[in-house]
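Support request, priority: normal
Reporter: lab tech (M.K.)
Component: structure prediction queue

Hi team, I submitted a job for Beta-glucosidase from Pedobacter rhizosphaerae yesterday, and the status page still shows it as pending. I've pasted the exact input below so you can check whether something in the sequence is tripping the parser. The sequence length should be 787 residues. Please let me know if I need to resubmit or if it's stuck on your end.
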Amino acid sequence: MNKSISFLLLLSGFALHLNAQQKPVYKNAKLPVEQRIQDLISRMTLEEKVGQVSVLLGWEMYDKQGTEVSASDKFKQAQKEQYTGMLWATLRADPWTQKTLKTGLNPELSAKATNALQKYVIENTRLGIPMLFAEECPHGHMAIGTTVFPTSIGQSSTWNPQLIEKMASVIATEARAQGAHIGYGPVLDLAREPRWSRVEETYGEDPVLNSAMGVAMVKGFQGNDLKSNHHIISTLKHFTAYGVPEGGHNGGSVAIGARELHQSYLPPFKAAVKAGALSVMTAYNSIDGIPCSSNPVLLKDILRGDWGFKGFVVSDLGSISGIRSNHHVANSAEEAASMAINAGLDADLSGYGYGKALKKAVEGGKVSKAVLDSAVANVLRQKFNLGLFENPYVNVASAKKVARSLAHVDVARKVAQESIILLKNDKNTLPLSKTIKNIAVIGPNADNIYNQLGDYTAPQDEQAIVTVLEGIKNKVSKSTVVSYVKGCSIRDTANVQFAQAVNAANQADAVVVVLGGSSARDFKTEYLSTGAANVKASEVSVSDMESGEGYDRSTLDLMGKQLELLQAVAKTGKPVVLVTIEGRPLNLNWPAEHIPAILNAWYPGQEGGNAIADVLFGDYNPAGRLPISVPKSVGQLPVYYNAKRPLSHDYVETSAKPLYSFGYGLSYSKFEYSDLIITKTAGSDIVTVSFKLKNTSNLAGDEVVQLYLRDETSSVVTADRQLKKFARLHLSAGAQKTVTFALTTEDLQLFNANMKWVVEPGDFTVMVGSSSDDIKLKGVFNLPAVN
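Reply from support: The job had stalled in the queue. We restarted it manually and it finished. Here are the results:
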């Protein structure tokens, strides 16, 4: 080798070494994340820091031209003026965003859109910090062409956390393939006020069931490796106690004590945080006069201090501004911003809660540099954890292949099947025969795709959604005559078809009537800046929507002419099966007395029609259980099963008990419970409970076994019974198995008068059964006092 070549090689090596040295620390993937975060923050201006914690509305940030998508002028302007580092609902399509199947993005174009936005910020901003894309993902990614699962109230009706974890993994895979990094969900609010418009988004009234479902969603969303391109960050909603607003008014104030907050409303969030959740959203409401978005006890002391939360906190849309405009505890936008970030709220979903107001608050000394840097670090940490600095783009072809794959649709059908609750089945009306000669399908929810999908659902390709009518047609023999009459609308009373419905019923051997509610948004409804509907008491053009965000109710009656339709059909004397598709418990008093068979399907998603038909015709043996009590009247409210003692007494007009209690649900199979054994482990608080479960029928099926506990004497008032353990078990015909549960310290503890979690000595009653009010076995154990 001659000297000139040797010199060139030496020079080249020196140049490479120099390049490596000059490479910013935050771009070096080999260095620890915390070191990279601090290096990046040290390079950022005040404006750039504020931009990283400002989350703008994303659907305005792209331009679509045929099969190409690019960054919009609005996005470029946002980067130039606001330095935003996160977008929300970029891929969302619905009447609020005014994105339709034509103007919105299919999965392939969604991937192109997020790639285009990433490319712009990486190549055209000073520091090249990649974007975070947050999307709505409660029962599927709220984007065109993705799989639509049952809403959360249906998910919890499965009582099957393992299945819900699998479902969440599917949702995450579809969202991440399109460029999303954060999924808003699960909603962990306890729904103890069924008049509230967002019951469908919750897992019901119980903290233990909510906790199990929340943990399942977090695990399914986040997996074990956020860099895998199959997982997303889970954002827990809404922190906290949002689901029990006074009067059922969405976002209204909440009247609960500190002990009840810790005992009932915080445990689902705590369980999800302990499972690794990396994002939490604050609630719109206040608790005891303190808005949740400016509550340092919630966001600092409890969330980070007590639970060790390592993620970032984001506001609900506009809730920082709401500190001033709704709660009136701040005099200015600047004061509201400082109250929120000083309380521990990291990111602003809206872009106007922080933005200029936060910048002014920092410059005026109301917010310290350390507080701002901490919030920025909490957001940036997730960008590093997701691997976005090294791999910001997604594979466009993969997005098209993954979304709504056959395997994913199969999961949607499975969740829908397991969510269906058999409320009544007199004289074995169900299952129906597939060779039935003539069946009438009647009702406003029998053949309406959007009414069975629930809120937070994108526009749909009608071919992808199976209604109840279609499901029944798919199931019966070719010779069966299936007649369909809508009969009436959900709310509108202008057009009814009672005569046609009665005529169809008279000619049928059996009648399936599909009633309930709807949270299907339309393009005529006006929406608030938060996305909630602007409900008007008297509407000229009446939509079906009576549930979903903003649609609070004063009664729980079936709306419009639905009950009259059912009564008219029932008078024919033909066997009638009622199927309810709804977002909240509705008044079923008359059907419970007069209709022989009732199925509750909530909003069952895109495969709802097939799943309901599977149950109607016996191809699937139902085992769903109620995650929320069904009241007889709004006058009973609240009517959740685990209210504090003393027990409620009856009213003059009716009993205090609900029509159907928490945990209730029937099956085509019969099960027998026996041989309860309770064993106290010496030297610990662990109590083992075992019993035998036998399928005494000739049909294989699932049973949801439930263990409730009562502390007989306690230092503070506790519930008469509280769910502690449950399991969904499959038994073949005639099969028997021994079921064992272990009660731990966490199951036995209470939040005492000194605001401490303790296990107290004394007698505890164990109740095992198939619902909260159908207890099959009872036993007592004693915890001795510790000397």
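The chain has three domains: 49-185+207-235+267-401, 420-636, 671-783. The two ends are 86 Å apart (CA to CA). Let us know if anything else looks off. Ticket resolved.
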